[in-house]
User: Fold this.
Amino acid sequence: MFKKVLIAEDFQDTNKGIVDALETRLQIETIQEELYCDTAFNRFKLAYDKGEPFELLITDLSFKETHVKRRLTSGKELIDAVRGVDENCKVIVNSMIDDPGEINPLFTDQKINGYVCKGRYSLNELVNAIHEVYQNRTYVSPNLNLNAANAVHEMDKYDLMILKDLAEGYTKKEISARLKKQNISPNSESTIDKKVSRLFDEFGAKNTHHLIAKLIKQGKL
Amino acid sequence: MFKKVLIAEDFQDTNKGIVDALETRLQIETIQEELYCDTAFNRFKLAYDKGEPFELLITDLSFKETHVKRRLTSGKELIDAVRGVDENCKVIVNSMIDDPGEINPLFTDQKINGYVCKGRYSLNELVNAIHEVYQNRTYVSPNLNLNAANAVHEMDKYDLMILKDLAEGYTKKEISARLKKQNISPNSESTIDKKVSRLFDEFGAKNTHHLIAKLIKQGKL
DNA sequence: CAATCCCTTACAGATTTCCGTAAGGGATTG
DNA sequence: CAATCCCTTACGGAAATCTGTAAGGGATTG
Assistant:
């Protein structure tokens, strides 16, 4: 079994649950937990340089923003950074996200080894995932089937992201800037304009106020 | 200290972390965890009827939907149900939500005793919260200031009327015209501007999009 | 290969929002 | 009565929204 495992997860209580399970059910010797992507990466790099690398990284995808400016702010970035240091380290993602469309790229692009969808029995799942990954197999939460990734939504993930930001008071200019910073494309103000305008037609809204109100009332936001 | 505590939280790993903390740091004798609102309520009711009631309920607000149809699907509903059985049981909510506008009603309407915002150090907070609540005080995560929403400045009919129109996509010019036609005063565009701006401050909204979204989510629109 | 479609982007103009300043009127108070 | 406060209203400027036009690129098709 793995001897050195690093956990990045910003919910302290969740974190504690994972550590406990790993200790008691897998007898892993060294378990380090970090609450921030940055510190997690630093610890990873340090251990690698010392010649005592971590063998497995368990990370969430989303980390709450803090007042402190951080270089790494998402699990995705952390994985990229880690991959840049050590190609061979196993990675298991443990997140709430259950959209196959978002998870698939993690395997194809980020080369992760396992995905556990946070939920009622995720702790058991995580233990299974670690077993599988240790034996060089991949693991995916059984309750989500990555095959049926193409459910026809009226609003795709991109639209939803924009609408959520708008509903939180961000301007299209700010949203455009954010998308650029996160290397998400398309990201021009013009395209955002177009996307939202199309939603006006689809949902029969007069303007953004109206659209936001409708979507929230429909539970889609 | 409390002797019987019930935890409702659908993330098994989070759950585990809480249980662990409660056991080791508070020496609570009986800790029951449930992953569903329904089963949590059943357990609560059963214990109450037996004359061995729970003294404290710790619950999340949102629970993932499942294929199984459930009578209770949110923490709010669970709290209501519990309150219907035992008025005296303490309730602490442990959730990701950090919008004071959503949290305040929990105290005023649901009569909860504590609120802990899930985050990096929420486990420590939860322990503090339990201490406070045990001594008949209320607890609120310090990082979110309920003051912004604490002066629950009731929106009057006039504000409500304007906001509803805005949410339906009317411009302030149109609203002003309508008010004039209906002989409702004040009715100038300028006054409408001012009224809405004041609501930005009161509800901590960045702009109209934000304000509408907040109010609808709070059920005030 | 050319025609076509679709998506992204830039840009421009009209409208709307947002925010500050300021004037006027009514009510209250010392 | 004067001073003050609050509410309404007008106005102006900066920023944002909304809409239309147009150019360019990639993918598809015949």
Observations:
- Chain B has two domains: 4-148, 153-217.
